[in-house]
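Final report, Chapter 2: Outcomes

The project's central promise was a pipeline that accepts a single protein chain and returns its three-dimensional structure in a standardized token representation, suitable for archiving and comparison. That pipeline is now operational. To close this chapter, we reproduce one record exactly as it appears in the project archive, with the input sequence first and the structure output second.
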Amino acid sequence: MKERYAPLFEPIGLKHGGRLENRFAMCPMVVFAADPATGQPTEEDIKYFERRSKFANLLITGAITVQENIQGHPKQLSIFNDEAIDAYSKLAAAMKSNGSKAIGQIQHPGREGAYGCYVTGKAYAPSAIEFPFLQYKVTELTEDEVWQVVKDFGLAAQRLLKAGFDGVEIHGANHYLIQQFFSSYSNQRTDYWGGSFEKRMNFAIEVTKEVLKVARAENPEAIVGYRISPEEIHGEMVGYDLDDSLKLIDKLLEQDLDFLDLSSAAGGNFGKDAYKAMPQRGGFTEPVSLVIKKFVSGRVPVVISGTIRSADEALDALNYGDVASMGVAALSDPDFKEKILADKEETIHMNVKGHTEDLELPPGLIEVYTAGIGLPQVEGLIEKE
């Protein structure tokens, strides 16, 4: 390994669960391989994650829904009952097979539960308003239903820990339910869950409290992280800005989290150097990720992502965060880290063409991403065979 890459292999401590042995993380991405009937992981999921078990010391699954029939896609993972624990035990073992930390990302898609809406006729949201980008109406969660969702986040965490996962990541980003409650655009409630900025934070805080309580009761060394989209700004529509996120982050870190995971960069910018994109408003003079890193001030490691696709970009990312999280790289070249260690970083590639069989990519994943309807970070980068 070239000496300049040594910082990528410096350990970093966690409050719980020991430490990370390097500064790489695998971005949470839906694999589109779960059993459509149960939401449980299949052999395709297991092979996919086992192939990537050396990619990073922090491996995070794609979104696992916490309730039945709310998925955004028929092959999205779900864990809504104890019957799923055995299947997830196999997934955890695959992820940990080379010493990595297995983290299950737990999620409620809210209004984005398109497949759940197809099955049940309902997609749930903080408020029953019309969204011009949806082809269906949403159903407003009642007070009791909101508290049930909070409880189900905790139960999902408990089941994953029973299955052998090292921890969970609370998915508070990407326009899913937790973010919807935080957004002034999506949340027009006037009860405990909305009506003021402080109340719009309550859902994120209550979910975090519940997950931490249940997780640490199940395993005192359980790792619990939180993923956040630092801004929700789309032209004239402003759900919240970076100033707002800093206030929420401060509240969340009071709850004893282990890491903070920043979802992509400002403004949905997935182009070059997205990991150091500038805030869209607020008078900041530094990139979003660096503003947050300085604000967090060492309280927890900050995981950052956004078009990090080479050894040098991963190294540079450590100037803006503590851990470099990669999606396209994990899909395209699971040997990314090993190639740096072997002084072969020039052989790292960012395209699956000609490598599909070796990469253990599920057919559903290839179909979605090559059709250009998958993750924005991936579109145009995975060529059709």
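Archive annotation: Residues 143-162 form the longest helix (20 residues).
This record, like all others produced under the grant, will remain available to the consortium after the project formally closes.
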